[in-house]
Amino acid sequence: MKSNYAHLLLLDLVIYETHRSGYDPVGNVQDFWGKYPLSTIQDYIIALQPDTSDKEKGNPKLTEFSVELLRTLIAYLIIHTHKMDLGKISISLDINREVIESSKIIYDFFQRVSPSNTNS
């Protein structure tokens, strides 16, 4: 695989690791906030934006997503620091169910064919 695609594989692996035995979402959240203070998160999101003064070359959907992502991360941080009830947040699982189910199928396949899998 060409190294210029390796970063894309890493993004796919993030979804697949959720099916791994011992997956720790709480640990991931703690690790994330331990590594990245809010100012750093904002700086990185800004750095991900296209560096252009030409509006035609910009990506308005990326900008909108970046703003929403930052807004959501800040909201989760505020919920945590104010000890608000996260259970009150209603998120539709139907939209994401297909991605989660397909990633489980792919994860299980690679677990079966992996040379390091002792169950083969």
Write the layout of secondary structure elements.
Blueprint: H1 6-16, H2 25-35, H3 38-47, H4 60-81, H5 94-113
Structure description:
The protein has 120 residues and is mostly helical. It folds into two domains: 1-35 and 86-114, no CATH class; 43-83. The protein has five helices and no strands. Helix 3 (38-47) runs antiparallel to helix 4. The model has no long low-confidence stretch (mean pLDDT 87).
- The low-pLDDT segments are none
**Secondary-structure content class:** mainly alpha
* Alpha-carbon distance between the two ends: 25 Å
Number of strands: 0
Number of helices in the DSSP assignment: 5
Q: Compute the average pLDDT.
A: 87
What overall form do the CA principal axes indicate?
Answer: globular
Helix content: 55-70%
Radius of gyration: 18 Å
β-strand amount: under 5%
Major pleated sheet: none
Q: Number of domains in the coordinates?
A: 2
H-E order: HHHHH
Descriptive keywords:
mainly alpha; 5 helices; 120 residues; 2 domains
In brief, what are we looking at here?
By secondary structure, the chain is mainly α.
